[in-house]
Specification:
This protein is α+β, with helices and mostly antiparallel strands. It is built from 24 helices and eleven strands.
Amino acid sequence: MMHLQILNIWLSTWLSGLTAPPELYLVGGSVRDLLLNKVPADIDIVCRGAQGVAEQLAAQHHATVIQMEKKPYQPCYRVADHLKALVKSPAYIDIAECRGSSIDDDLRLRDFTINAIAMWIKVNGASGAIIDPLDGAGDLLRRRVRMTHTQAFDNDPLRILRAFRFAADLGFEIDEATLDAMKHAVPSLAGVSVERIMNELFLTFRTPEASSAVAALDSYGILDSIFPDIIMIKGCNQNGYHHKDVWGHSLLVVERLEDILNNPGDYFDDAAAVFRNLETDARLPLLKLAALLHDVGKPGTKGLNQETGRITFKQHDRVGAERVDRIAKRMKLSGQARTFLVRMVREHLQPIFLSAASGSSAARMRWFRQMGDDAVPALILSMADVMSSRGPLSGEEYRCGFVAWCRQQVNDYYVSVKTILERQVLITGRDLMALGMTPGPQIGRILGQVKEAQDTGDIASRDEALTLVRKLIEMYPS
């Protein structure tokens, strides 16, 4: 009831003042969330003359109208309150054109019964009667994802991915008739734009049980069509450090990663800082995608050590990063997303090297300086990678020790390392030129060595930095 009261306040804030409003209905996930006793994530409304309603609301609230492409063949308009004038209300609402001759017709054209429930909105924004022609409320009780009609996936094949997402997110089962219809519609996914596919995958990766959805998508051959590069890693055997082939290991890494992300307090002292890190720039779904693809470079680098007889994958991290870069470009990810994804794959072995006894403090700090905040997700990915390597040559003692080391690095990053990296520099290139150096690469090298000495605590003042510079100039004259 409390959630309904909150919703009524939102609706009243947005909708009161509409002149001659048409019949308005709250639909889809908004109603589903209410019936599941959750605060709705957003507000979705259908009505006649959606564009006119959106424009009137925008004018009334000094907001902006953005035409959306949420569903094929259904005009939808987002009214966005960029000025945040509507206090304690969602920053936007979506208003779509009602399809068919009635709200019942519109609901019957939707994807799944649990999303085909509407609620009438009264003139003052108060909620009215529930409209549920397909017993979506019953399917919520039965915890079942069921298609609204037999042509649901022919009309929009992307709904195949959505079915698995809802099942993973809500912990529901997909009913048999729906699964059968999905199987027949899989080839039609080839006609869906990569932008829509990746958006849906990212929504899936944001769910806490995405690993189950990934496994289900794989069982239907869907992932092969989206990421053909994974076909090569299926059946690619590994050395004694692994108990599964490359693909089986990759799926397990996603599962282990998800366990860490779902329970950060069990691993890290400052779980809130880790959460904020992963919420920045969509790192969380990208990190799960990186886990899935982190070993795509192994088939092309597979070799055999003649002395030990062991399988090797030399530089698979570098080759994998190059492959992932091509995948990201093909899937039209943003430059920022592509850079992060490639970096995660390229760096997933680095924590293993740094954790070795020979890994110096200076090397660790250099890596932290190079990675910045990206060091945290890279460490988490490496943790999941090692946790998933359970072959006869991978002992429990090593795995536990490595996970403990990674946890300590994340904790250290937020306690001290980040502060050290953000300290003001002690000297600049101008100081070096004042000492007689001429512009050139030597200045950059010396500044780098001074910064490294500052990072490791060997120097802490400007005078100490200048003393070090004079020594370096004498040792390495330009």
